C-alpha cells in the first residue's frame, strides 16, 4: 500500500470523500431531508478527523506514553478462510466488493491494528462509501443496548447530531462500511443482544459493508452471510519486521534479533507468533537477557519489567509512584481486581466501576490505599491499564488473565474448588491453563482428585455404553436449536447443548486447564431448506410453520423426547429458552426422535463426548496414581 499522510487524509475529507457522498446520496433522499442533510455534513469532516486520529495513530506496549504512526509499525498478516490463504489487502478488497467479514484470532495477534489499517485503506479510496470504525466495548457504558443509535450519536460534531431520517437514508443507500472492533470485549450478558443487532443491521441494509473483529466464538458458525478469516500466527520474518519497525533502543533491538530471534527462534516460536508477546519479549530481554519458556513465568518477568523499568525505550528512566506499597502488595491488589472483573466478563470500565472494584478489594487484600491513586499507578507508572476518553481498559487482556490465575493460585486455598468453578470457560482464554501451570500440585490435590472421586462412577458408566444413543442417554444429553426464517429459508440462529452438570463442568475445566481446549457441546448447524434432509424435512412439513418465522427444536436423550415450538419471531423463541418446561406445539415418537437425532448428526456428538471422557479419565487416573506413589514413598515431608 502506498504511503499515506494522515494530515492529507484529514484534509481530503471535506473535498473528495464528502463531495462524493453528498453527490451519491442527494439523488436518493426527499427534498424535506436535504436541508438537514446539508447542515449536518458541513461539519461531518470533524467527525472524520477524530476517526482519522484514532486509526492512523496507535500506542504500543512499548510506546505507551506517545502515539506512533500506525503505518510506520504495521506488519501485514496472513488469513485463512475455508483452507485458502488471503492477504490483508485482498480482504479489504472483498469488503469493498460487498462481502461481510469476520476477522478472528487469539489475543495480541493484531486484529485491532488490522481494523485500523482497513479503515485507512478504505478511507483513502472510499468509492462512494464512508468507513466507520467503532469499538464495540463502548456499548458497555449503556444501560440499554442500541448499536446503530450509539454509532449515529458518536458521529456527532459538537451539538450537531445526525438526524435519524438522514442517517436511515444513508444506510438504505449503502453509504457506510462499518468496522466493528472487538466483539469479544462485549460483556457476556449483552453479547447475544449485540449479535442480534449486528445481524439485523446486516440484513436490513445489505448495501452497507460490515466487518467484525473478535477472538474465536462458536456463535459465528450461525452468521451465514459472513465470511470468517482467521489471523495466522506470525512467522520468523514477520516477527523480525515487528522488532525492526518499533521505536526502541537500536543496540538492544540488534542484540535481541541476533541472540533470540536468529539463534533461538524454535525455542520461542510460540511467543514470536504474536506481535504483543514479541514486544513483551523485547522488554523482558533488556532486564534478564533471556526469555523464560513457560508462559506464566514469562508474564511474571514481563510484569516485573513494566513495574521496575516503566519505559523500556529509555533505559534507566524511573517514573513517579502514586501509591506507597511494595511490589507484593501491588500484585495482591491488582490480581484480585483482575479476577473480579474477569469473572464478571468485564474488560473495559468507567472510572466509577474501577474505583468501586478497588474499594471492595481493599478488604480482601488487607492493604490500605487510595483507589483513585492506585488507578493512576496502573495507568501512568506500570502501564497495565490505559484510558481512552472516559473508558479504562487493560493494556492487553492477557495481563488480566495472568493475574486472575495468579490470584486463584495464591489467595483462595480455603475455597479453591468453588473459585475454580467460577472461572468462565471461554474459547482461547488461558486462565485455567495458567492456574494449572502456576501450581500444578495445588490444582491436582485441591481440585482434580476430590472432584474426580465424586463422579468417577458416572464417567465409567457412560464409557461402558457401546451404542451412541445409549451414551447420550446415560449422560442426559440435551440439545436445543433455534431457527429463524430469512427470506424463504430457515437458518440456525442459536444452539445450546449440555449433559450431566457435575460431569460436564468438571470435564470442561480439565480440558481447558490441561489442553486449553473447549469441551465438545456442539451439534453441526444445518439449514431446514437447502440441504438434502428428507426425513427431517418431512417432520418440519408436518409442523406447517406457514408464516411463523421462528422454530425451536429440543432433544432430550434421557427420555427420547423431541419437542418443537413455533413462534412469530426469534426473540419470542429466545425468551422461551432456559425455561425448564415449555409446552411444545409438536412431539414425535421414539422412532422419529432417532431419525431427527440422526439427521442432526448426534452420533458424532456421542463419539466426541466419549473421546473427551476417555481423556479426562486417563488424565485423572494418572494424577491419583502419582499421588498414591508419593504418599507411599516413606518420605514424610514430601508426602505431606
Q: Which segments are poorly predicted (pLDDT under 50) over 5 or more consecutive residues?
A: 310-317, 522-535
Shape label = globular
Mean pLDDT: 82
Neighbour order of strands in the largest sheet: 4-3-9-5-8-7-6
Instruction: Determine the oligomeric state from the structure.
Output: single chain
Q: What distance separates the N and C termini?
A: 63 Å
The Rg value, from CA coordinates, equals: 27 Å
* Class derived from helix and strand content: alpha+beta
What fraction of residues sit in β-strands?
A: 5-15%
Helix content: 40-55%
User: How would you characterize the largest beta sheet?
Assistant: 7 strands, mixed
DSSP summary, beta strand count: 17
- Helix count, DSSP H or I runs of 4 or more residues: 27
Q: Explain this structure to me?
A:
- There is one protein chain.
- With 640 residues, this protein is α+β, with helices and mostly antiparallel strands.
- Helix content is 53%, strand content 13%.
- The chain has a seven-stranded mixed β-sheet, with helices on one face. Strands 14-13-15-16-17 form a five-stranded antiparallel β-sheet, sandwiched between helices. It has a three-stranded antiparallel β-sheet with strand order 10-12-11.
- Helix 1 crosses helix 3 (44-56), helix 13 crosses helix 14 (295-309) and helix 16 crosses helix 17 (371-381).
- The relative contact order is 0.07.
Amino acid at each position: 500500500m502506498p504511503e499515506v499522510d494522515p494530515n492529507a487524509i484529514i484534509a481530503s475529507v471535506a473535498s473528495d470523500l464528502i463531495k462524493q457522498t453528498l453527490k451519491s446520496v442527494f439523488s436518493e433522499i426527499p427534498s424535506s431531508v436535504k436541508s438537514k442533510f446539508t447542515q449536518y455534513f458541513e461539519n461531518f469532516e470533524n467527525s472524520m478527523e477524530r476517526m482519522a486520529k484514532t486509526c492512523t495513530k496507535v500506542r504500543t506496549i512499548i510506546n505507551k506514553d506517545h502515539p506512533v504512526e500506525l503505518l510506520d509499525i504495521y506488519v501485514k498478516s496472513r488469513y485463512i478462510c475455508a483452507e485458502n490463504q488471503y492477504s490483508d489487502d485482498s480482504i479489504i478488497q472483498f469488503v469493498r466488493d460487498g462481502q461481510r467479514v469476520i476477522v478472528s484470532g487469539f489475543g495480541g495477534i493484531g486484529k485491532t491494528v488490522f481494523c485500523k489499517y482497513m479503515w485507512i485503506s478504505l478511507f483513502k479510496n472510499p468509492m462512494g462509501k464512508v468507513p466507520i470504525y467503532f469499538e464495540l466495548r463502548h456499548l458497555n457504558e449503556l444501560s440499554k443496548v442500541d448499536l446503530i443509535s450509539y454509532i449515529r450519536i458518536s458521529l456527532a460534531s459538537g451539538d450537531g447530531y445526525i438526524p435519524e431520517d438522514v442517517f436511515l437514508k444513508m444506510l438504505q443507500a449503502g453509504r457506510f462500511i462499518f468496522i466493528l472492533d472487538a466483539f469479544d470485549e462485549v460483556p457476556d450478558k449483552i453479547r447475544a443482544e449485540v449479535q442480534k443487532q449486528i445481524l439485523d443491521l446486516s440484513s436490513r441494509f445489505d448495501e452497507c459493508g460490515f466487518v467484525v473483529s473478535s477472538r474465536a466464538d462458536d456463535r459465528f458458525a450461525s452468521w451465514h452471510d459472513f465470511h470468517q478469516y482467521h489471523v495466522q500466527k506470525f512467522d520468523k520474518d514477520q516477527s523480525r519486521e515487528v522488532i525492526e519497525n518499533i521505536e526502541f533502543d537500536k543496540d538492544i533491538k540488534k542484540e535481541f534479533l541476533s541472540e533470540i530471534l536468529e539463534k533461538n527462534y524454535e525455542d520461542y516460536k510460540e511467543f514470536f507468533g504474536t506481535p504483543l508477546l514479541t514486544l513483551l519479549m523485547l522488554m523482558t530481554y533488556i532486564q534478564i537477557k533471556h526469555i523464560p519458556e513457560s508462559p506464566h513465568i514469562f508474564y511474571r518477568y514481563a510484569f516485573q519489567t513494566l513495574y521496575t523499568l516503566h519505559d523500556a525505550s529509555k533505559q534507566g528512566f524511573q517514573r513517579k509512584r502514586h501509591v506507597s506499597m511494595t511490589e507484593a502488595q501491588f500484585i495482591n491488589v491488582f490480581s484480585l481486581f483482575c479476577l473480579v472483573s474477569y469473572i464478571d466478563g468485564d474488560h473495559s470500565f468507567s472510572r466509577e466501576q474501577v474505583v468501586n472494584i478497588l474499594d471492595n478489594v481493599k478488604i480482601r487484600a488487607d492493604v490500605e490505599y487510595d483507589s483513585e491513586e492506585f488507578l493512576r499507578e496502573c495507568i501512568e507508572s506500570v502501564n497495565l491499564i490505559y484510558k481512552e476518553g472516559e473508558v479504562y481498559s487493560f493494556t492487553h487482556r492477557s495481563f488480566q488473565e495472568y493475574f486472575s490465575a495468579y490470584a486463584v493460585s495464591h489467595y483462595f486455598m480455603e475455597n479453591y474448588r468453588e473459585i475454580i468453578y467460577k472461572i468462565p470457560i471461554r474459547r482461547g482464554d488461558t486462565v485455567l491453563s495458567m492456574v494449572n501451570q502456576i501450581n500444578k500440585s495445588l490444582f491436582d490435590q485441591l481440585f482434580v482428585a476430590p472432584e474426580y472421586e465424586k463422579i468417577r462412577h458416572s464417567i465409567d458408566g457412560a464409557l461402558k455404553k457401546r451404542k451412541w444413543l445409549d451414551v447420550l442417554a446415560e449422560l442426559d444429553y440435551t440439545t436445543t436449536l433455534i431457527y429463524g426464517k430469512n427470506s424463504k429459508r430457515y437458518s440456525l440462529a442459536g444452539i445450546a447443548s449440555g449433559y450431566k452438570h457435575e460431569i460436564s463442568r468438571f470435564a470442561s475445566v480439565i480440558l481447558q486447564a490441561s489442553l486449553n481446549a473447549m469441551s465438545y457441546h456442539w451439534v453441526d448447524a444445518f439449514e431446514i431448506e437447502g440441504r438434502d434432509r428428507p426425513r427431517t424435512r418431512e417432520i418440519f412439513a408436518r409442523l406447517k410453520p406457514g408464516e411463523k418465522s421462528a422454530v425451536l427444536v429440543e432433544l432430550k436423550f434421557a427420555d427420547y423426547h423431541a419437542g418443537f415450538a413455533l413462534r412469530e419471531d426469534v426473540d419470542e423463541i429466545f425468551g422461551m429458552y432456559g425455561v425448564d418446561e415449555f409446552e411444545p406445539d409438536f412431539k414425535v415418537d421414539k422412532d422419529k426422535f432417532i431419525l431427527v437425532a440422526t439427521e442432526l448428526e448426534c452420533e458424532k456428538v456421542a463419539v466426541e463426548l466419549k473421546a473427551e471422557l476417555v481423556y479426562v479419565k486417563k488424565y485423572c487416573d494418572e494424577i491419583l496414581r502419582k499421588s498414591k506413589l508419593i504418599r507411599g514413598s516413606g518420605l514424610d515431608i514430601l508426602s505431606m
